[in-house]
Amino acid sequence: MQKVRIISRKSHLAQIQAEIVGNKIIEQFPNIEIEYIHKETQGDIDLNTPLSEMPEIGVFTNDIRNELINLNADLAVHSWKDLPVEMEPGTEISATLDRADLRDILLFKKSSIQKKEISLLTSSPRRKENLSRFLPKALPSQPDKLEFKEVRGNILTRIKKLMNSDSDGLVMAKAALDRIIKNESQRFLTEKKEIIKIFEDLNWMILPVSENPAAPAQGALAIETRSNDNKILDVLDKINNKEVFHLVEKEREILKSYGGGCHQKIGVSYLNLKMGKSLSLRGETEQGKNLKENSFIADEKYTDKSLENIESYYPENKEDFSLFDRKVIDESSMILKEISNSGIYVTRGNALNDVRVIDESNIIWTSGIKTWFTLSKKGLWINGSSDSLGELESPPENLFEDLKWYKLTHDLALQDDKKIIPTYQLIRKELSEDLRDVSHFYWMSSSSFDYAIEKYPEIKEKSHACGLGRTFEEINKTIPGKVYPYLNYEDWLEKVK
């Protein structure tokens, strides 16, 4: 029987991650015996020095790498974001598994929700840079001052430091929290229960990738081996998720082009979506250059091939696109008042006019960032967003249990996996423009598309575009293969112009 020795750091999270890899190997090779080895690294021993002041290269990984080189282990499992972008000769990252949620999560004291001056625990220059722009608009208090304080230690230690300090919030990788909470091992049950208990006094917010892209490789596991160990390489080839591996390498290459390293104020994240891949890049370079990019690269099947024959396009600007008036359905407030301990998905800012009817026990999810900012300005705590990537691509989830979900939208919306609560009525306007001579269209909703083709059925044969979510699914049912996905209207407008 072949034995595989897996080495990792000593923390509970590192042990859980090593066991995820070990279990995956056993799935493919039941006769392999797994031995786990745990070792403290320089970064684990020195918990006082801020990360920004520690050596850049391999503070959490060099000690483990040396065990591989010295033949004391066969493979090492790391959080890939901890690895330097330049690997030293002798070892290599040979495989990875399915990627966990790459987003960051903000844990926030309920007693601090109304504060105008906020103190957050994080040691990441990237988080400090990007959250300084996002949180003043995303928090219901609309704070005018954000202060960041250094924090070190494992997941439970950092959460306890938050609870025992005068700080208001803590930012960490959601993948780390997920892996601990979802782990079923009895060895880590006490830590898991303690974290869940503390959560009763906290609000949480999953930070959107478009505004706060993660550290390159966040949420992905790196499996490191000796470069010439062909037996282990053959084993890992059977469990390697090559698509995740490719996207993580691309993220790391982008960071490397700006200098690389965890001291950078740069986040970069690729998301593998149903119809293509999105890239979010945000931060500031060492030279002071501000970086901001959100883009979408459609798969071949969904690539818009009609852009060479543009005669005219509609709408020419977003502000003039309005095919409906909207009338509030007053009775919806009485329904919303009765909902508690549930999930509420808000499709647009004016789908929820009075946030006071929402019980604080509910989880609030928005379709995009604009809707988030509209509701937070009204004083509502938002837990997360589909980030304009489509409701089907980014389903809201609770950290601990399944929820019943309600969707706030218009009276003509089709039923889906969420219970529809119509909060406003769509009232058709007269179409002021003859659309028959337009060659290219962008639709903000399937309702607008349906109204337009009802009056001008001949435009079905033209080129159509929309966002990445349910609107695409509905329009594609009517004109299969003739509608193309884009990140948003601005993305499409840039292409047609």
Describe the structure.
The strands form 5 sheets. A 6-stranded mixed β-sheet has the order 15-20-19-16-17-18. A 5-stranded mixed β-sheet has the order 2-1-3-10-4, sandwiched between helices. A 5-stranded mixed β-sheet has the order 7-6-8-5-9, with helices on both faces. The mean pLDDT is 91. Strand 22, helix 13 (470-478) and strand 23 (483-485) form a beta-alpha-beta unit. It has helices at 12-28, 42-45, 62-69, 125-138, 155-163, 174-182, 189-198, 230-237, 242-257, 331-337, 369-377, 446-455, 470-478, 489-496; strands at 3-9, 33-39, 75-79, 91-95, 104-109, 117-121, 145-149, 169-173, 202-206, 221-226, 265-273, 276-284, 290-298, 313-314, 324-328, 343-346, 363-366, 384-385, 405-410, 419-428, 440-443, 463-466, 483-485. It folds into 4 domains: 3-99 and 218-260, Periplasmic binding protein-like II (D-Maltodextrin-Binding Protein, domain 2), CATH 3.40.190.10; 104-206, Periplasmic binding protein-like II (D-Maltodextrin-Binding Protein, domain 2); 324-428, Rossmann fold; 435-496, no CATH class. It has 497 residues and is α/β, with parallel strands linked by helices. Helix 5 packs parallel to helix 7 (189-198). Helices cover 28% and strands 26% of the residues.
